[in-house]
């Protein structure tokens, strides 16, 4: 009787041990890798480069190279070209509330906002379509320059005065610092997963206060007294908004 009891106990122990071993093996097969960091370390990051063409508030046309240097990190190096030079413009100042006593005002405009940029981009989410962007731009010769003059004769108290006798009024706006930090966000892949991608950049450059210089001649010479008030009024405006659309083509 004892031998039969001992035999049944041994059989139960053997069956239990076998069942436990089968369960342990099944759990080991279904469970994820014990060291995901080691698995990710075995997967080599692929380095990619893309060419970008953009246009927006800080560039009539911009060209850049984007480097996908890490799973969540991109580096962009680019050049943004924005210049405008036009002489003899005759806008209607009455539409903005400025009354011109007689004749038309001719405007010569010369603008240069071209700059080179270096941006670091962090794409924290899995699809890499949202980006946090920081960086800076370098603009060695950024300015806005306008010159105003009468385009025809003006009658003042029955006295006809020619444009040359009236004189000219010129204003130039510059920035002392050539380097401007940048902060912003982006949507869309900088380096496409396949071949082509479209992206949007929203941000702002931080610049020092603009410096206004006024030069006026002849009858308009008194306008130089407006230089100091203009500088004081423009001093708080240090952020330059950026809205850019970008087309990216992966090179390799």
List keywords for this structure.
5-stranded antiparallel beta sheet; disordered N terminus; Porin; 8-stranded antiparallel beta barrel; 252 residues; alpha+beta; 15 strands; 4 helices; elongated; 2 domains
What does this protein structure show overall?
The longest helix has 29 residues, at 2-30. A hairpin with a 7-residue loop joins strand 6 (115-122) and strand 7 (130-138). Residues 1-6 and 12-42 have low confidence and may be disordered. The protein has two domains: 1-42; 49-250, Beta Barrel (Porin). The strands form three sheets. Strands 1-2-3-6-7-12-13-15 form an eight-stranded antiparallel beta barrel. The chain has helices spanning 2-30, 36-42, 163-166, 227-234, and strands at 48-56, 59-70, 73-81, 83-89, 105-112, 115-122, 130-138, 143-150, 154-156, 159-161, 169-174, 179-187, 196-206, 211-216, 239-250. It is of the alpha+beta class.
What's this entry about, in short?
The chain is built from four helices and 15 strands. The protein has 252 residues and is an alpha+beta fold.
